[in-house]
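Long-time lurker. I teach an intro course on protein structure, and each term I like to show students one example going from raw sequence to a predicted 3D structure in token notation. This year I'd like something fresh instead of my usual example. Would anyone be willing to generate the tokens for the chain below so I can use it in lecture? Attribution to the forum is fine with me.
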Amino acid sequence: MAEAKFEIQMLADRVMVRPDKEGERRSTGGIVIPATAELANRLVWGEVCGTGHHVRSVKVGDKVLFKDEDQFEVEVQGAMYFVMRERDLHAVASERPEYGTGLYL
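-- Reply from a regular --
Happy to contribute to a lecture. Here you go:
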């Protein structure tokens, strides 16, 4: 008998985020920073993969900025995701600028 598959639906103000792949980075001066280098209080970018019914500021597909150390991790079909409250997001990168910073990814 085939195993049943269940769709994941986020509840309330929860957001599921897939972090961007981290690897070696380069500084603006061209210095290679290895993936194992630890930076204090570093925020990371990720893509929103699911939102609860009470989430108002982001939607699926948005790129968001958050601190990964304070979030819950979950593995789904071999991929790692973070689950957090909407208020734990620090910024959203959007093609629809309204109140932006003037900086672009």
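Some talking points for your students: The mean pLDDT is 83. The chain is about 0% helix and 35% strand.
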